[in-house]
Protein: Inactive poly [ADP-ribose] polymerase SRO2
Organism: Ziziphus jujuba var. spinosa
Amino acid sequence: MDQNLMEDQISMTVDDDEILNYGSETDEEVHSKIGSHLFEVFAQIGMVSVGEGSMEHEETKRSFLLGMGLVSKDTNIVAINKIKPNFSLTRQAKVKSFQIFSEAVTEKCGGDANIKHAWYGGSRDEICGIVSHGFSSCATNAKQDFHGVGVQLFPVKLSIDGALSSVADESGVRHILLCRVIIGKPEVVKSSKQFHPSSNEFDSGVDNLLFPRKYIIWNAFINSHIFPEYVISFKSPCLKEFQRKQAGNALKPLKPPKSPWISFPTLISILSEILPPKKSSEIVKCHNEFRAKKIRRTQLVQKVRTIAGDKLLDAVIKSINNIRKKS
């Protein structure tokens, strides 16, 4: 997938932003009717609507749209529904199972089960089936590429990848699950039909240890290490066009950047592990101001350089690009 369409980049050479201007249609009455219908559909399988305007709704919406990149401008949230943990004895057992396995992996990994939030896109029927009965190895295997055999989910910052694997229903609405996932200790799985951990040391698979774009949960663990929490229903008319362009770009050789670069989300993630919390918060604040168009790109870069220091930034960016060259 072309990173340039999804994430801001910080480069040793500052370029102007590329903004895709998609026409956006909003029809609140239609969305309200669709939302009411979805409420009925999801209520039957033990879900409850998250009230629009609530903190829970806003946080979930923000997380989803943030990971949609430029496509977020043309994306409208129709409904957010939350799974009721006490809906049935079976559901309660699944909650308990997830807790037990979380504790087991925590102990195995020395105190950290490495639980992440991740996205899974599918058709409405598939999403409903997962909420009702859990993941099916038969259904998920049909969606595999070559990064191992199991359920593939996408990191919370990459909801666009989950959205691209969703399927629009008869109303043009797509659905994506936000799940809690026990990652434990992951191993890199490359171009493989691997379907289980290579040893007892590992709990899951990833396509890249430092910057994973995929989490692979082996079939043996799909209903113990994944717990769906929310279903986000959305419309994104330009998603098909975005997907078509991605497919076209995949056939073209990518031109490498003329200077070392790193995406801002990746940079922030790395710096948060190095800098004091106060400085990390300042960088996050600057990035949010940039995304809200309160400051220019050049101002953002200058502020990040001032906070982190050129020496540290240079070391981080060069380190990441050296890793890319070797992979």
Residues 1-26 have pLDDT under 50 and may be disordered. The first strand starts at residue 9 and ends at 11.
